[in-house]
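Structure, all two chains, one model.
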Amino acid sequence: MAEQKATNVHWHEGDITREHRSRLLGHKGATLWFTGLSGSGKSTVAVELEGRLNELGVLSYRLDGDNVRLGINRNLGFSAEDRTENIRRIGEIAKLFADSGVIALSSFISPYAADRNQVRELHEAAGMDFIEVFVDCSLEAAESRDPKGLYKKARAGEIKNFTGIDDPYESPWKPEIHLHSDQQSLTEEVDMILGELRERGIINA
Amino acid sequence: MAEQKATNVHWHEGDITREHRSRLLGHKGATLWFTGLSGSGKSTVAVELEGRLNELGVLSYRLDGDNVRLGINRNLGFSAEDRTENIRRIGEIAKLFADSGVIALSSFISPYAADRNQVRELHEAAGMDFIEVFVDCSLEAAESRDPKGLYKKARAGEIKNFTGIDDPYESPWKPEIHLHSDQQSLTEEVDMILGELRERGIINA
């Protein structure tokens, strides 16, 4: 390690804030909360958006089952209590990312309006952008895709409390962005989201 | 929102990876894990480092009691189990930040070696840099500072299981960085850390 020569090279301007980080990155942080049925296309849109944002020089990070359910939430099951705690924790993590300047892309079914609204309030109380993206899709279309074979298992009774089959999906009342993944192209969907991010001044690119 | 005109503007290169994010930011993500007694100066060093990194154009984010204990870990108390779960969750969050390209600055007493080592293993298994920063300081020096009046309360028996008084602090065996906050200047401490980040190729600035 280099020997310390210079002295008094302290940072004098006080704590680094959200604004400092935004200036460094050239964009603001925010949470994009994708919600919709299993198979509605949440992850597909999030992955495509992530690529487009990267091309625009915007830092985003996806929170999904792979890095959350197998990580911080590995000690949670699928009881009603655990599902609520699952969404609460994801909401808190998304908020930390948004605060850090990153655009958090949260992609979970998150079927209950009350849980989603709690995450919204958490962000809004801290002056952070929470953008609910309803990936709307008919149950028929989602079930016919069934990318993970989960609907089949739910219909066979092998999975209980499956959203859309024997557990409700509560549609957002006023999502900031309402996509229709069974009618729109992926490009259209992503462009709608980028438009919203520009309109809100979150990105300029 | 702008009408979609162009088609086929999909992102074709597959999922965005850690490497894409590093390229965008110009540095790698990592976790700097500050550990030491209450009053040892963990936060002081982390805040100063955060400012210096910002000047260098490096994105970092502090995880501390303010944004973690009052947020995602608000449902945890101070039992042995809860303390372990507290550190586990912080470790998982730091790992997500490191993966996103951000330099996570985690600043908690984290007195138990087993808990810290679990976080280390979590990072190393995923090929991420975990840098343990031992903010070493005599109990006498930490207690004489007592910035939050906690030692006084612990000595008076108003706080139980206080690290250094009636609960052990297990010093790191092989910390990547060993600071002596009662003997070094803040500038020296921060320069040691920056030196380590440069040596590891995490930052080039």
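The CA atoms of residues 95 and 123 of chain B lie 6 Å apart.
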